[in-house]
Amino acid sequence: MWWLKAVAISLSVCAVLGGRDFPPEFIFGAASAAYQVEGAWNVNDKSLSIWDYFAHTYPEKIIDRSTGDVACDSYYKWKTDIELASKMGLHFYRFSISWPRLLPSGFPNYISEDGKRYYNNIINTLLEKRIQPVVTLYHFDLPQSLQDLGGWTNPLIADWFANYARVAFSLFGDRVKIWITLNEPISFCDIAYNVGTQAPGYISPGVGNYICNKNTMLAHAKAYRVYDKEFRSKQNGKVSLSNQFFWLEPDTKSDEQAAENARQLMVGMYSHPIFSKQGGWPPVIERIIAEKSKEEGFPYSRLPAFTEEEIELVKGTYDFMGFNFYTSRTVRNAKPGEEIGAWPFEGGPDINIILGVRGEWNNTDAWWLYITPDGIRKLLGWLKKEYGDIEFLITENGCASSSPDVDDEVRVQYYKEHLEQVLVSINEDKVRVTGYTAWTLMDNYEWTDGYSIKFGLHYVDFNDPNRTRTPRASAEYYASVVKSHSLDVNNKIIDEL
Ligand code: BGC
């Protein structure tokens, strides 16, 4: 197979970098998310999520005008999905619970029996196959009824979310030992409110995003505290959140401060309150936004402050740090008078920076995804320096293409190069990375890219009512890494695949 050659080349690279085996306790998994795979959008007592509403109401915002109404049909085909994970020998499968499927009113007054049954089936079957369930409580699909009450901009959402989390912990926590509260608040706060290409599609740049940001920190923290007080002693699990971080590097030497400010805006806004010793907003960002707000005539900062009590509530609410990594950007100071596009895609109007890419970085079919494997190592090094010697779980990493091709050479290469950098980070930089998650188990509904962009280890035929899944070369490659627990892929294992 062609990718065997690639593996052979990687062996020599690894030999130079030192060590090909992953630590014995290191775990490998793959991920999905409810709206992207489940379908069954209106089955039984499930209520509408903001993505059901967004995709139905604004088809023009989705590249192929598609919806997640059926998606991979995983509501019916969950057994097949678990079979795929099992064949690859995965240690864990990360999936998300659809809040409106479990709690159709959004509140815990009524728990859907159907929702309960569906997630219990998945969890129990995974465990039978010796695959650990890693459960995300929120992956972008808020009940629309809560959106109608302001969604992530209503401060009460912190309690709504904690109440939902309590239901999930009490129903499933006897068997689920790794919980991710929120997936990528940067997507549903910054992309949603600054750019509008995420549900709810309501744009309020520089205001809505910061209100949402604060509320996500409180929601995560309250859910964590619920776990701590009511469940931890019996269930003994771990709880954190996952954000997506680009590696951000200075365009030129004179842009170092600009790059550091951008890191604080992208990573710090969702991490400093939780993972730093001081808690609260990253001081540099808090100061800059307060100054800017004043210049703009606001009598207060557009970034809502934390009270002392809130700082204490949020600080330290983690058992590890989860993060998703896909790509990198360069950062430079904006020139005087230069127009600055929206954060986090084009620039940072509040911190006066422009984002870019280097000419030598290869692009993928997703416009935003440039391949920069060393970015994951640099990012891990920065996170360790910033937040200390904590445990890291990489909760997503993967490569986009528009081609359905199962000979996905670029994706194999992407995984190989990123895994190499993770190993270097563990061996050379002594960063405590304990697991890695491939995004994604199978092609699925890629948000505003609809079905036009694919990230799957498995190809899914969306024209086939059966949504047939076919393993790609990347699935075989990843399975061989998992089974040999090494980048030095064992030939015996390859023969068995
Ligand atoms: C999200 C996934 C998404 C992936 C690729 C992450 O932002 O968590 O839902 O499919 O990136 O775009």
Automatic annotation (TrEMBL):
Can you supply a Gene Ontology BP term from the record? Answer: carbohydrate metabolic process
List UniProt keywords, sorted A-Z.
Glycoprotein, Glycosidase, Hydrolase, Signal
Q: Which domain of life is it from?
A: Eukaryota
Pfam (any one): Glyco_hydro_1
GO molecular function terms listed in the Swiss-Prot or TrEMBL record: beta-glucosidase activity
**First and last residue of the signal peptide:** 1-18
Assigned protein family: Belongs to the glycosyl hydrolase 1 family.
Question: Could you describe the subunit structure of this protein?
Answer: Homodimer.
Task: Specify the protein name.
Answer: Myrosinase 1-like
